[in-house]
Amino acid sequence: MQDELDGKAEVLLDPNTLSKDGTVALSTYSISEDGDYIAYGLSESGSDWVSIHVMNVTNQQPMPDKLSWVKFSSISWTHDGKGFFYSRYPAPRGGELDAGTETNINLNHQIYYHVLGTNQSEDILCWKDPEHPKYSFGASVTEDGKYIILTVYEGCDPVNKLYYCEISSLPQGIKGFRKRQEMLPFVKLIDNFDAQYQVVANDGDEFTFLTNKSAPRNKLVRVNIKNPELWTDVLPEHEKDVLESADAVNNNQLLVCYMSDVKHILQLRDLRTGNLIHQLPLEIGSVSEISCRREDKEVFIGFTSFLSPGIIYRCNLAPAIPEMKMFREISVPGFDRTSFQVKQVFVPSKDGARIPMFIMSKKDINLDGSHPTLLYGYGGFNISLTPSFSVGRLVLCKNMGFVVCVANIRGGGEYGEEWHKAGALAMKQNCFDDFAACAEFLISNGYTSSSRLCIEGGSNGGLLIAASINQRPDLFGCALAHVGVMDMLRFHKFTIGHAWTTDYGCSDKEEEFQWLIKYGCSDFLLFPTSLYTI
Fold first, then answer.
1. In terms of C-beta density within 10 A (0-12 exposed, 13-18 middle, 19 or more buried), how is residue 376 classed?
2. Where in this chain does the record put each Peptidase S9 prolyl oligopeptidase catalytic domain (predicted)?
């Protein structure tokens, strides 16, 4: 932290000191509106379970607060700085288990409000839904501090219900519910799972949302939540590009981020009309983070690419033409970006779909089929693989002559919800066909040969690798499948697996069983030793 942007910085919290063996990680954090406190979540040994702690920023001393059994949660402070909302599951019977190695199914997510300086047993239950034990919830406070927004999720699809509660309507405040056997009086604005709704900004009761309602590449809409019958479009869906995010800045402007052919574009637009004001200069790559507040004229933009370790831009929106300057840049000793090249190609899949793929290598390599090649993919859950920097991959390119490729197969979010759905449920085979097509492209165009081609993926990407090896063992010489979802007939019975049925389906249903049995990989490790699985 530092007193001003050009002032001397001091360490507030160093995750590297949390444990001697490096197995405790900082998973989330949130700073109170007045800057006096930081609440942060720690996870141990790679577990999804999180414990929330609080530190006094002024004296950098820990507070006694410790919240357990937190999972899939953000931290959102009320503007008075007296406490924050978080999500948790009920403590297991007996109160203890080997968190992180257990396989118990996660049910009955709940929203609580923690009052600073009190024991977790006194936390206020704000929302639960025992009739729908598989639902998950998130709570956040609007930027003006007036509303609590409750989002309800059924699985991993980009759809949610959305409720709100006006804090000023609570006569005794949130703490008045501590001794009452009732939850906060949320109003159900959206009470179905037809689409996704994310709050962008609000002026009193008038809210602007980012949504995919009748817009698979997303759009911005506006509604008065006290008169929800009339919804108007602010920024219509783009004909090709995906609207990834929108942030209110400089009082009445929007900073919007589009994804165009897996590369990010930043635009400044008018909050009221959606009209374009200016397109910000940005090289080919990914916007990793946008840090801003509506009342501020300055925005900080994180940027990365295959050949850029990381840049933070400081953007002044006050002039007619915004001024972007480099604020921080990560430097990697010995790395010369001019020694490498990155190109994007579009590969026809089995059904003719056009699949983007990035190819990184040393400059001016001979396409003679001799290069060891790493092909990475994911293809699921509406997640996009945009350009990012990897020391490990560059070491392979520089020191071992590798070609490193990232395939943007269907199932991801690279072209919106239609692209996602084209690689999910009954269409999951498209993911494997797309990946195989990218591999065949690399071989036929002289980058590599099947014996020198290694494929890699993790989680849903681990399933991709296992299915690819099962279906096309002739195409690959090595396979790295990290923490893959392999048992497609039983995954929904353990931990949070039930949420993944929105992408895969569920074997309890006969039709969906027939999808899953065709590519399930629970026997993945029983392969000939010529194929390496990790």
1. buried
2. 387-519
Look at residue 525 in the predicted model and tell me its pLDDT.
44
Question: In one letter, which amino acid is 445?
Answer: N
Sign of CA dihedral 57, 61, 63, 66: positive
Q: Tell me the C-alpha distance between 345 and 415, whole Å.
A: 16
Exposed/middle/buried for residue 20 (C-beta within 10 Å: 0-12, 13-18, 19+): exposed
Which amino acid does the sequence have at 253?
Q
Q: Would you tell me the crossing angle of helices 429-444 and 460-471 to the nearest 10 degrees?
A: 70
* HSE of 172, CA atoms in CB hemisphere, 13 A: 7
Residue for token pair 């009082």: 251
Cβ atoms 84, 112 nearer than 8 A = no
The whole-angstrom separation of Cα 352 and Cα 370 is 28
Name the β-bridge partners of 110. 88
Instruction: Show Cβ contacts of residue 249 under 8 Å, excluding neighbours closer than 6 positions.
Output: 255, 268, 292, 293, 294, 296, 297, 299, 317
Do residues 43 and 73 lie in contact, with contact meaning Cβ atoms separated by under 8 Å? no
Whether the Cβ atoms of residue 372 and residue 400 lie closer than 8 Å to each other = yes
Contacts of 238 (CB under 8 A, 6+ apart): 217, 258
d(Cα 136, Cα 132) in Å, to the nearest integer? Answer: 9
What's 292-335 look like in SS3? Answer: CCCCCCEEEEEEEECCEEEEEEEEECCCCCCEEEEEEECCCCCC
From the number of C-beta atoms within 10 Å of its C-beta (0-12, 13-18, 19+), residue 396 rates as buried
pLDDT, block means (10 residues), the chain with 534 residues = 92 94 96 97 93 96 96 97 97 66 88 97 97 98 97 97 96 90 95 98 98 98 97 98 98 98 98 97 95 97 98 96 96 94 98 98 96 98 98 96 98 98 98 98 98 98 97 97 96 95 97 95 46 32
Q: How far apart are CA 354 and CA 316, in angstroms?
A: 38
Is 104:89 a contact under the CB 8 Å cutoff? no
Structure tokens given for 157: 């699809």
Query: Which of 435, 383, 443 has the alpha carbon at shortest distance from 262?
Result: 383
Class of residue 207 by CB neighbours under 10 A (exposed 0-12, middle 13-18, buried 19+): buried
Q: What's the gap between Cα 471 and its chain centre?
A: 30
The one-character DSSP state at 238 is: P
How far is 39 from 77, CA to CA, in rounded Å?
A: 9
